[in-house]
Design a protein that fits this description.
The complex is a heterodimer of chains A (about 575) and B (about 375).
Chain A lengths: L6 E6 L4 E6 L2 H7 L2 H8 L15 E5 L13 E6 L6 E6 L3 H7 L4 E5 L6 E6 L2 E6 L8 H8 L4 E4 L2 H4 L7 E3 L3 E3 L4 H7 L2 E7 L10 H17 L1 H4 L4 H4 L4 H7 L21 H8 L2 E3 L9 E3 L9 H7 L8 H14 L3 H15 L8 H10 L4 H4 L3 H7 L8 E2 L2 E2 L9 H9 L12 H4 L15 H18 L11 H12 L5 H21 L12 H4 L15 H15 L18
Parallel strand pairs in A: 1-6, 7-12
Antiparallel strand pairs in A: 1-2, 3-4, 3-6, 4-5, 7-8, 9-10, 9-12, 10-11, 13-14, 15-16
Helix pairs in contact in A: 1-2, 2-20, 2-22, 7-21, 12-14, 13-15, 14-17, 18-20, 20-22, 20-24
Chain B lengths: L1 H13 L3 E11 L3 E5 L1 H11 L6 E7 L3 H8 L5 E2 L4 H7 L2 E4 L1 H16 L4 E4 L3 E6 L3 H26 L6 H12 L18 H17 L9 E5 L3 E5 L12 E5 L14 H10 L4 E5 L2 H7 L12 H4 L4 E3 L2 E4 L8 H4 L1 H4 L4 E4 L3 E6 L3 H25 L1
Parallel strand pairs in B: 5-6, 13-14
Antiparallel strand pairs in B: 1-2, 1-3, 3-7, 4-5, 6-7, 8-9, 8-11, 9-10, 11-15, 12-13, 14-15
Helix pairs in contact in B: 1-6, 2-5, 3-6, 6-10, 10-14
The chains are: A alpha+beta (about 575), B alpha+beta (about 375).
């Protein structure tokens, strides 16, 4: 088989049994890999409690992983989120995905719970569970350093071990499988890490000449994109390139979304980080963009979301403190977005946001679930409820919102609500057209057409996340070029339209799972604050509160476009049975 | 969406890329709507209803070049644009012969548009889709029209007239469609400009001039003016005739990344300012300049991807011609060294850069001169072949 290996490694952590299975070709063709494959493999398990031993934790690569297709050496980790209760997938890069594919696996299917801490070690053709008592309690860097000789590592830190509901799985030290707390699922399985050393590249390509031409087309579009390779773009500054822009657009969440403008953000802008830390490029294997930034000593510097949520969202402008907070998250295996947002909600609730020098201690308390951290480890929704003020949680479906205020971009407002993993900007990535003008600009203060636009983008990104290409690639390239890459690699003809249909299948499967777990229109809603309080206008930009009636109208349009009922559910309870 | 459809219908008429009265759009959010010439509107709706996209335009081009291209070939089903801009974004443009369209209808067009942004339908026109906006459909139509225009004129230079009616059509194009290209009647604010508000106003005005005088199609090109410590440059994907609110101030010193949304040619503009006494820069894709930039007469040359790899500087009517892809693809390195003296440069298969040492009057005049020279030279060479 070209593209895929056609093999999955299954591991029953309860019994310690490991075995290989052949993946049905029709699954691979219909769901591609990565997120789509993982979501399909979740069928039948999707209503289990996230911490039930039988709940699978799935690692899946895409059909282009292991090739030279730009930005496709990525990995999806899929399960049900303990933070949100929704289906959840996290995308990360690093070197682990290529190693996993080179070991001969499209996916790992990890179920059960080990009686003691273990590491799953894959070396070429052999796979085994090895005791890891000595690693339990270790930080992510310590774990990776211990296991590095055995290959590339995906590991949890103390946060995952202790069941923090927004614990990450760290894929290498700087790539977090973030959002949704799948690190806690891994911790409940007593699986400290997966380490893999692939023997050789096993991804074969059906038509190498066609493939190379498609690669050239993609790279040409990357070079033509000011967002990617422009002198102010993410290849130069990483995602911190967004700090100045989002603030200038007056949509930077500030002090728990009470305001949308934070002039002190210039202290942690892309140029400021470059100046203060001598930021150097780093990133995933096979990626020409290299958007991660490191210090000369190899310390990973924060990405935009972490900067903004430890910064503006908590009223902090001290760059060193923000960098330190991000490093602590990487060490403990914490999602910095949820961590920063939870601290902010808690700060507003108690009438004082955390001071810069309090961040490391508070984060450590969260990771170890001690002191105030015991409560904070539950995420902002549960914190706000326990404080008796649920409105403090700036989340959708319990997932803390990222660093783009929805009052500054109405497609984003809708996308936060229709995202199947909760309040996330990456499912539809409306930032691309509402702020970054790609492929064309749309009016960020209008809902007109956004229902259709968000639906198309969700389908597109579901396909992208299943090809396991990086979202940033699509600030230059499109599905046209990636369909060509996929066709050339696999020998099966795909088109942007067919990939969109694949994405729709994946999206609707996820939505169906969520509906089976009780989610509906009542959960597709922003926090009340956004409908009643304006943002911080100025410089000729008004940031009014969102018109609730207009929002609801567009949400209903979206449901009709999706073929859902007015309650956001499926009219046909046997919908899933009709899908491959 | 009707307001968007009306706006882009007007634009297609104003830029004369489509025949008045032969334009239709379809758009859909939770329901499908169509507007325009009834036959084309029906077709547009039938095609868009089969696609997961927001907008679609079907229109008859104002020139017969697309149909001629189709009929000049008997064994192909697509054209590959020769200009680098549209080739970068379109890759190729499928075409459907009239008998194929009669058999395949909207289903066939939907299948092709499921893979590409625009398609040529013999005897019908250009059908282009916009995934997220009606504007995007208009832009893709405009790109196909531009690519076809350039390719057909090049084909004539290399292959001559092959079909009945071609010569007459070209003569009609030259006498009726083409208009004298001048800067006459335009008012430019005398420079150098230093006040930010005046700079923004002038950039907006001159951007509109370039579209109105046919130096660029609305969506292509970029424009900038330097202030004391800033470059004021049009944003990426901005229409030059609608620049109000779409101009990024970018500090010369890299102290802010707000300009991440600036034109992909920011690096070229910055380098030109750093290495010359230019105060303003215009970049457009006037069609005859694009055609002539690709007419290289070097013999025995082994370079095949000239638009990217050619290291030579040719001179065309006093204007240096260099190779280089868009954005970070080489153009920013090759244009600045050659533009200083004459204030003008051609990029192979791409377009024209001109500068002004005081204000836009000079830059605009130079671009008009370059395009007029290329237009004249084109017809001279065509007559000579």
């Amino acid at each position: 088989m070209n593209g895929w290996t056609g093999t999955i490694l299954k591991v029953d952590l309860t019994s310690g049994r490991l075995w290989r299975e052949t993946l049905p070709a029709e699954f691979l063709h219909a769901y591609l890999g990565g997120r789509g494959l993982g979501v399909r493999l979740m069928r039948g398990f999707h209503t289990l409690d996230p911490f039930a031993p039988e709940m699978p934790l799935i690692f899946a690569a895409g059909p282009l992983c292991g090739t030279t297709a730009p930005t496709t050496d990525r990995l999806a980790v899929v399960s049900r989120s303990p933070l949100t209760g929704t289906i959840c997938d996290c995308s990360s890069g690093g070197r682990f995905p290529r190693q996993m594919k080179s070991a001969g696996f499209d996916a790992l299917f990890l179920s059960g719970a080990s009686p003691r801490p273990v590491v799953l070690r894959i070396n070429g053709d052999t796979a085994e569970l090895v005791p890891a008592d000595a690693l339990w309690g270790k930080t992510v860097p310590e774990t990776i350093a211990t296991l590095a000789d055995a290959g590339s590592v995906a590991a949890i830190g103390p946060a995952g071990e202790n069941g923090v509901l927004f614990a990450n799985i760290m894929v290498g030290e700087g790539n977090g499988g973030g959002r949704g707390g799948l690190g806690a699922v891994m911790g409940h399985k007593r699986l400290k890490a997966v380490v893999v050393d692939g023997a050789r590249s096993v991804t074969t390509i059906a038509d190498r000449q066609r493939f190379q031409l498609a690669c050239q087309d993609v790279l040409r579009l990357f070079r033509a994109s000011p967002i990617i390779f422009g002198e102010l773009g993410i290849a130069e500054y990483g995602t911190p390139a967004l700090v100045d822009l989002v603030n200038q657009r007056r949509m930077v969440p500030t002090e728990n979304f009470r305001r949308t403008y934070f002039p002190e953000s210039r202290n942690y802008s892309g140029p400021a980080i470059r100046r203060e830390y001598g930021a150097q490029k780093g990133g995933c294997s096979g990626c020409p963009i290299q958007c991660l930034k490191l210090t000369p000593r190899g310390e990973y510097l924060p990405e935009y979301e972490a900067l903004s949520h430890f910064g503006a969202l908590n009223g902090i402008s001290n760059l060193a403190a923000i960098v330190r907070a991000n490093t602590v998250c990487n060490e403990l295996g914490l999602d910095p977005v949820s961590a920063g947002a939870t601290l902010s909600a808690w700060g507003e609730g108690r009438g004082r946001f955390p001071a810069a020098d309090e961040l490391p201690g508070l984060l450590a308390d969260i990771g170890h679930r001690r002191g105030d951290g015991a409560l904070l480890a539950l995420g902002s929704r549960r914190v706000a409820e326990q404080l008796g003020n649920p409105g403090l949680s700036m989340s959708v479906k319990s997932l803390e919102l990222p660093a783009y205020d929805p009052r500054g971009a109405y497609g984003m407002a809708l996308a936060y609500c229709t995202s199947n993993r909760g309040g996330c900007h990456l499912r539809a990535y409306p930032l691309s057209h509402e702020i970054l003008r790609k492929p064309v600009a749309t009016d960020r203060f209008s809902f007109s057409g956004k229902g259709r636009i968000i639906k198309i983008a969700e389908d597109t990104n579901a396909a992208v996340d299943s090809l396991m290409a990086c979202t940033f690639s699509f600030l230059g390239a499109t599905l046209e070029e990636y369909a060509e890459l996929l066709s050339a690699a696999t020998g099966i003809e795909y088109s942007p339209q067919s990939l969109g249909e694949t994405g729709e299948r994946i999206y609707l499967t996820e939505r169906f799972y969520n509906c089976a777990n009780g989610f509906s229109v009542a959960d597709d809603l922003l926090p009340e604050r956004f409908y009643v309080e304006p943002g911080s206008g100025g410089d000729g930009i008004e940031v009014p509160a969102i018109d609730r009636a207009r929002f609801d109208e567009e949400l209903q349009k979206y449901y009709r476009i999706r073929g859902l009922t007015p309650a956001g559910t499926f009219a046909d309870p046997r919908f899933l049975e009709k899908l491959p | 969406m009707y307001d968007q459809i009306a706006k882009y219908t007007r634009k297609l008429v104003a830029d004369r890329s489509a025949l008045h009265g032969w334009i239709a759009f379809a758009a859909q959010d939770d329901h499908l709507l169509t507007a325009g010439e009834p036959y084309l509107a029906q077709l547009a709706g039938d095609v868009l209803g089969r696609l997961d996209a927001l907008g679609l335009v079907a229109a008859r081009p104002s020139l017969p070049f697309a149909d001629f291209i189709v009929r000049r070939t008997s064994d192909q089903s697509l054209i590959i644009p020769r200009d680098t801009e549209t080739r970068t974004f379109l890759h190729d443009i499928p075409f459907v012969r009239s008998d194929e369209f009669a058999a395949g209808g909207p289903e066939l067009l939907a299948r092709l548009l499921g893979n590409r942004k625009g398609v040529i339908v013999e005897g019908v026109g250009i059908v282009a889709v916009g995934a997220v906006t009606v504007e995007q459909a208009y832009i893709n139509y405009s790109s196909v029209f531009h690519a076809v225009f350039v390719k057909y004129l090049q084909d004539l230079l290399t292959g001559g007239f092959l079909l009945p009616g071609e010569r007459e059509a070209l003569e009609g194009f030259r006498s009726d469609w083409l208009r004298p290209l001048t800067a006459d009647g335009l008012v430019f604010r005398p420079g150098p400009l230093t006040e930010p508000a005046l700079i923004l106003s002038e950039v907006t005005t001159v951007g509109r001039y370039t579209v109105e005088r046919g130096l660029v199609d609305s969506f292509f090109g970029n424009i900038s003016c330097r202030g004391d410590d800033m470059i004021y440059i049009s944003q990426t994907a901005a229409s030059l005739d609608e620049l109000d609110g779409c101009i990024d101030p970018v500090p010369f010193a890299a102290t802010s990344t707000t300009g991440i949304t600036a034109s992909s040619e920011l690096a070229a503009h910055r380098r030109i300012y750093e290495t010359s006494d230019a105060r303003v820069i215009l970049h457009g894709h006037p069609k005859f300049s694009v055609v002539m930039s690709m007419q290289c007469e070097r013999e025995g040359c082994e370079i095949t991807d000239c638009w990217r790899d050619c290291p030579h500087v040719r001179i065309l009517g006093g204007t240096p011609v260099v190779a280089g892809e868009i954005g970070a693809g080489g153009l920013a390195k090759r244009v600045p060294p050659v533009i200083g003296e004459s204030g003008r440069a051609l990029v192979y298969g791409h377009g024209v850069f001109t500068t002004g040492r005081q204000d836009f009057a000079e830059a605009f005049r130079l671009m008009v001169e370059v395009e007029n020279w290329c237009r004249h030279e084109y017809f001279r060479r065509l007559a000579e072949r």
